[in-house]
């Protein structure tokens, strides 16, 4: 597992229906860049999934860095404009139930997408790439001449939060090969087709993905120095200073998967743990505290702690011990879900989209077994 998601170093380009996209959009719905002097349309009110902070300028109204961010709006008419700001990003743009159109490493600017007819439409923009190298900016959605903004789509009553590492991000999950270059990893990552996207669509739920490839509970991949997921979690950006404003976010389900990076590599002499047992004890205690912190903020949430059988079962055994310690402290509204039988056919032996579906199935079974998860 790579400690970070590398920048591909490729030129900026517009990519429609690339290999990373689920399907090719019809030709009459092609996305095209607009001249810089195109008159701006009227802004669509948005429903936003994920952590964002206010930015500056027409193309940078929103800044974001955690994966899986999405923006939804509604309009009447035949076209919608998408404003994209600075930052290396891969987007999927969908009108209604049409196939998504891919916008990969776009130059900052406005892009127009045509709808199939001039009626009422819903548009969604998904960020499918990981952005460890830096925050990216999004300028919003706009109704050009001939189209009219409508009210923001209703907030979904169900909500799921996903906290984890590269398995939750969807690192290289659309690849058909385990052998990937740094650029291919970035291009083949699609959070919307990963565990979060698949499970949330099953329940018609809003979602947030707070995950970072290569990071763990107390130890990152290979012991490299960087904030762990619990350390980075309080912040909206990976700068250690822009605090997240999670007011109003009360997910009924919190799905967690952390431990792969803590345990998938041997300890180095210079690391602070002098034995595997010491690492285990630190991991278990920190994971328990992390769940307890989340519980205080989300008193009614159902937690799902899942783990693969990688590292000769060490990860799954440690997550089970975390579950035991939580039970001993009086926690009852959670499930521990071991997941086996994965192909790990994605980049660098990560779960592929089919594996993501299997993981989502196992998590879904745990949710469905628990009565009252959704408040009804």
What report would you give on this structure?
The protein is of the alpha+beta class and 376 residues long. 22% of the residues lie in helices and 24% in strands. α3 crosses α8 (353-369) and α6 (276-297) crosses α7 (314-328). It is globular, with a radius of gyration of 21 Å. Mean pLDDT is 93; it is low at 1-27.
Topology at a glance:
Elements: E1 31-33, E2 42-43, E3 47-49, E4 53-54, E5 62-64, E6 70-76, E7 79-84, E8 90-95, E9 101-104, E10 109-114, E11 120-127, E12 136-143, E13 148-149, E14 159-164, H1 166-169, H2 182-188, H3 195-203, E15 206-211, H4 229-232, E16 253-257, H5 260-263, H6 276-297, E17 302-308, H7 314-328, E18 334-339, H8 353-369
Parallel strand pairs: 14-15, 14-16, 16-17, 17-18
Antiparallel strand pairs: 1-10, 2-12, 3-6, 4-5, 5-12, 6-11, 6-13, 7-10, 7-12, 8-9, 8-11
Spans of at least 5 consecutive residues whose pLDDT stays below 50 are: 1-27
Rg is 21 Å
Structural class: alpha+beta
- Give the CA-CA distance, first to last residue: 40 Å
Into which percentage range does the β-strand content fall?
15-25%
Largest sheet: 7 strands, antiparallel
Shape: globular
Mean pLDDT: 93
Helix count?
8
Total beta strands: 18
Task: Sketch the topology as an H/E string, one letter per element.
Answer: EEEEEEEEEEEEEEHHHEHEHHEHEH
Percent of residues in helices comes to 10-25%
């Amino acid at each position: 597992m790579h400690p970070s998601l590398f920048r591909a170093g490729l030129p900026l380009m517009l990519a429609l229906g690339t290999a990373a996209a689920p399907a090719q959009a019809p030709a009459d719905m092609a996305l095209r860049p607009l001249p810089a002097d195109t008159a701006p349309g009227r802004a669509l009110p948005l429903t936003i999934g994920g952590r964002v902070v206010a930015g500056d300028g027409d193309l940078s109204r929103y800044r974001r860095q955690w994966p899986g961010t999405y923006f939804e709006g509604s309009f009447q008419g035949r076209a919608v404009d998408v404003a994209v700001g600075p930052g290396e990003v891969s987007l999927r743009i969908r009108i209604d139930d049409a196939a998504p159109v891919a916008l990969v490493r776009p130059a900052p600017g406005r892009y127009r997408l045509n709808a199939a007819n001039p009626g009422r439409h819903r548009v969604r923009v998904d960020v499918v790439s990981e952005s460890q190298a830096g925050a990216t900016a999004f300028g919003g959605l706009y109704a050009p001449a001939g189209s009219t903004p409508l009210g923001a789509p209703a907030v979904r009553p169900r909500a799921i939060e996903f906290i984890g590492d590269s398995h939750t991000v969807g690192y290289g999950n659309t690849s058909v090969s385990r052998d990937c270059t740094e650029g291919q990893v970035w291009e083949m990552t699609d959070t919307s087709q990963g565990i979060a996207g698949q499970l949330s669509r099953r329940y018609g739920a809003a979602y947030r993905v707070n995950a970072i490839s290569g990071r763990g509970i107390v130890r990152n991949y290979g012991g490299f120095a960087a904030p762990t997921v619990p350390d980075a979690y309080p912040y909206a950006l990976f700068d250690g200073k822009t605090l997240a404003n999670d007011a109003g976010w009360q997910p009924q389900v919190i799905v967690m998967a952390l431990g792969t990076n803590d345990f998938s590599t041997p300890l180095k002499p210079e690391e602070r743990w002098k034995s595997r047992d010491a690492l285990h004890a630190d991991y278990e205690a920190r994971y328990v505290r992390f769940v307890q912190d989340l519980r205080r903020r989300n008193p009614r949430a159902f937690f799902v702690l899942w783990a693969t059988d990688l590292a000769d079962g060490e990860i799954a055994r440690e997550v089970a011990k975390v579950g035991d310690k939580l039970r001993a402290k009086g926690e009852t509204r959670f499930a521990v879900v071991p997941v086996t039988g994965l192909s790990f056919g994605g980049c660098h032996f990560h779960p592929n989209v089919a594996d993501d579906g299997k993981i989502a199935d196992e998590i879904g079974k745990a949710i469905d077994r628990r009565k009252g998860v959704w408040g009804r």
